Amino acid sequence: MCTRCEWGTSNQLMIKYHDEEWGVPLHDDRKLFEFFVLEGFQAGLSWAIVLNKRGNFRKAFDQFDPEIVARYSEAKIQQLTGDTSIIRNKQKIAATVNNAQRFLEIQKEFGSFDRYIWGFVDNQPIQNAFTALKDLPAKTPLSDKISADLKKRGFKFVGSTVIYAHMQATGMVNDHIVHCFRYTEVQRF
């Protein structure tokens, strides 16, 4: 029998996401930007809603190419607010354009966004050892620190809870429950 984190069992899409992506250390800047954007859109919503629309988001946001997104005009933002296949929150869409611009600034300063964000954990995933879903924090002092730094750099929709979700998704922290089969698997990446 396969034991997995209970949040990742609701449907096939969530199972696939849990089993193949969540918690795997991610170092590709384009994919980091994708998760950064999606976590921002999740604010106030469930991850299942965002995950169900992920393909539509990829299409709408030019496969999450930060160089293209950074150049979106007001007309493009208006077009996206009318796109029923994505979450049509104008503030989040405008924040995505702003964040793409800030993302490029970090790439220029640090050589990559990966080098910047993973520097907060000394390039090594934090290995937590939670035994129940209820024990997982929504945020931590480290996510508070990263959030504050991003806000100082001009990012939007980067509260500590959003940042901690990003850290979990991209493997900066291993928050698979210790009884989950992925707990030890993601440690090998």
What topology does this entry show?
Blueprint: H1 12-20, H2 29-42, H3 47-52, H4 54-60, H5 66-69, H6 74-81, H7 90-110, H8 113-119, E1 126-127, H9 141-152, H10 160-169, E2 173-174, H11 181-185
Parallel strand pairs: 1-2
- Number of beta strands: 2
Overall number of domains: 1
Indicate the overall shape: globular
Corresponding CATH superfamily? Hypothetical protein, domain 2
CATH domain class: Mainly Alpha
Q: Compute the gyration radius: what is it?
A: 16 Å
Q: What is the average of the pLDDT values? A: 96
Structural class: mainly alpha
Strand content: under 5%
Please state the second-level CATH architecture: Orthogonal Bundle
* N-to-C span: 24 Å
The CATH topology comes to: Endonuclease III, domain 1
User: SSE order, as H and E?
Assistant: HHHHHHHHEHHEH
> What is the count of helical runs?
11
Instruction: Give, in spatial order, the strands making up the sheet with the most strands.
Output: 1-2
The residue fraction in helices comes out at 40-55%
Identify low-pLDDT runs: none
